[in-house]
Each structure stands twice: as structure tokens, then as C-alpha cells.
Specification:
single chain; 334 residues; alpha+beta; Double Stranded RNA Binding Domain; DNA polymerase, domain 1; 5-stranded mixed sheet; 3-stranded antiparallel sheet; 8 strands; elongated
């Protein structure tokens, strides 16, 4: 362990040299500043910093050539520089290839979400595909964003491009992020309309639906705690009633009671037309939402509302308990 004291010329000038190897001393004024003293009496200021998991010792300069105050004042700048990634200039790469590299390295999404993202990229960012990443300008980005119909999608594409070029900047493909100079697209964020009282009304409205299959699917949107696409695509083979599981997800008590009462007349829990499952019952949902007094309510609003309320747990049993407790609380079960 390093000996600690306030560095001053008198003490440093009279430090004894070790018989072999080297000693390390540490400045009490700035503990980040240290000094090597070798067996030959050579004294050198340095700092230590852990960078990317590795311990680095960065030399500041020898003493007395480097003044004590100069060494102290340079510590912060040296540590800041040590944390910066070295800038390397890569070979040219077209945007189409680079966006695939970005998706591979930086995007962690489920399969459905990833497919939607790739579809949006192929629809809106095609004008950039053939351009070299290093040659894409702010005007090129602005032209692409302005051509997108709808501020919500335009805003998401601008955020995506900002992240893409940040990745390019960090890895030496560009010298500057061209999206940084573009004002952010103004968006009127949608306020999700569901409340606890609205959820109770929604339950009652679903109960008035005459189609039993559709009614059960809509109930499962509430009891299942998953997005609509997964609810409608449920298969009987993925359900394990012995362990209260659905494809390794815990099932709430209400979901189990609901599912056990359904007829198993198809591979799909909620069969639709042509031997397939229900896809997107917008008309039926609009009827239910209007009956509940929330005409602008979407099926995604239900999932978002429940997930904001749910206390997540990595243990399946704990998560299942949290799901049941939340539904009991929201539906005011006593």
C-alpha cells in the first residue's frame, strides 16, 4: 500500500530510495496523484485508472522536472482523456450495411418488435441506403425526416438515426453526428386514457360482448399481462395448468379460471377464420371501448396500463403473486 503524505518539495527531495525495485507514495492533497521512487532514485508522477476493466498507470512526468502543482492540476484532464475511446477512421461503408451492423450490435428486442423496426427502416430510410455513412449530411437527414408522414413516426426515426450516428461516431466511421444539428420533431404525445375506474367499466363492457370467443380474448388482454399479439396467438400446447404457466410465463388466477373454461376445439386458444387465430379485432374492440365510455382506448393501452402498475420480479412465483395482487387491487376485490 502506498505511503500517504502531502507532497511538497522538501519531503520529495529527501525521499529515500528503496534498496531494490520501487516504492509508491500518494499525495494527501489529491489522492489520485502518486509517485514512483526507483532504487536508482528516479521519481515519477503517475495516476491509476481502470479503463475497460483493465488497470492503467498513466505517467505524468518526472520530478523535479514536473512541478508538484503542475502534476496536481493535470490529474483530472489525464483521467478524462483516459476514458475517451481512441478515434479510429474506418473504411467507407454504405448506410444499408451500417444499419444492419447497428441492429446486430446495439438493438436488443423481441422478434416481433425487431421485425417492425426493420420494416420501418426499409420504408422510411431507403434514400440513405446507397450513401456512404461518412458522407451523409444534416440536409440528407432532414430531407428523409421531412418526407415521413406523421410526427410520431418521424420523431422515432429521428431518434433512431441519432442513435445510429452516435454509434458511428464512437467507432470512428464519422467525425460528427449529423442529426445533432437538426431540431427535434415536435410531437403531440398521446395521453393513455385508461384509469382504475375505466378498467372496471371495461371489464363490464367485455362481459356484454355476445361472441364468447372474442369476449374471452378481450378478458385475456387484462388477465394475461402480455401484448395483444401474444394473447391472440396463444396455443394450447404452450399452456401448463399443472404449474400455472404459459410458455414459461406465470398465469394469474383469473387467467387460469378463464382458460380452463374454454373449449379446446383448435390448436389456437382463440381461433379465428380460416383455421388461424384472431388477428386484429378492431371493430369488436371499438364496440367494447365505446360501451365502456372510453372510445379512444386501444388494446395496447390496456397492456401499458397494467405493466406500469405491476411490480416486476424475476422469480416466477413472486411475479404471479404480484399479478394476482394487482388485479385484486384494481378490481377492488374484498
Amino acid at each position: 500500500m502506498a505511503h500517504q503524505f502531502y507532497f511538497n518539495p522538501y519531503i520529495l527531495d529527501n525521499l529515500p530510495a528503496p534498496q531494490s525495485g520501487f516504492d509508491v507514495v500518494q499525495d494527501l492533497s489529491d489522492p489520485r496523484l502518486r509517485m514512483y521512487i526507483t532504487s536508482r532514485g528516479v521519481k515519477t508522477f503517475f495516476v491509476r485508472k481502470r479503463v475497460n476493466g483493465k488497470d492503467r498507470r498513466i505517467i505524468i512526468g518526472g520530478y523535479p522536472e514536473t512541478d508538484i502543482e503542475d502534476a496536481r492540476s493535470s490529474v483530472q484532464a489525464i483521467l478524462d482523456n483516459a476514458m475517451q475511446k481512441p478515434v479510429t477512421r474506418r473504411r467507407k461503408i454504405v448506410f444499408e450495411k451500417f444499419i444492419k451492423l447497428y441492429l446486430e450490435k446495439c438493438v436488443r428486442r423481441g422478434e416481433d418488435s425487431r421485425v417492425k423496426l426493420e420494416r420501418a427502416i426499409n420504408r422510411h430510410l431507403v434514400p440513405l441506403f446507397g450513401k456512404n455513412v461518412s458522407e451523409i449530411s444534416s440536409d440528407d437527414i432532414r430531407s428523409v425526416i421531412d418526407a415521413i408522414d406523421g410526427p410520431a413516426i418521424a420523431g422515432r426515426m429521428q431518434e433512431l438515426l441519432h442513435s445510429v450516428f452516435k454509434f458511428a461516431l464512437e467507432n470512428g466511421y464519422v467525425k460528427k453526428n449529423p442529426v445533432s444539428d437538426i431540431p427535434r420533431v415536435r410531437q403531440n404525445r398521446r395521453v393513455r386514457p385508461l384509469t382504475r375506474a375505466g378498467l372496471v367499466r371495461l371489464i363490464d363492457a367485455i362481459g356484454q360482448e355476445t361472441d364468447a370467443n372474442m369476449q374471452a380474448a378481450f378478458y385475456m388482454l387484462i388477465y394475461g399481462f402480455v401484448p395483444k399479439s401474444k394473447v391472440f396467438a396463444m396455443q394450447w400446447e404452450d399452456l401448463d395448468f399443472n404449474h400455472d404457466l404459459w410458455d414459461n410465463r406465470p398465469l394469474s388466477d383469473r387467467a387460469i379460471v378463464l382458460l380452463q373454461d374454454l373449449p379446446q376445439s383448435s390448436n389456437w386458444v382463440f381461433p379465428g377464420r380460416g383455421g388461424f387465430h384472431i388477428i386484429d379485432p378492431r371493430v369488436a374492440w371499438a364496440r367494447v371501448a365505446k360501451r365502456a365510455g372510453i372510445p379512444n382506448l386501444t388494446m395496447d393501452d390496456v397492456y401499458k396500463f397494467l405493466m406500469r402498475q405491476l411490480t416486476w420480479a424475476t422469480d416466477r412465483a413472486d411475479l404471479r403473486d404480484n399479478m394476482n395482487a394487482l388485479l385484486d387491487n384494481l378490481l377492488d376485490v374484498r
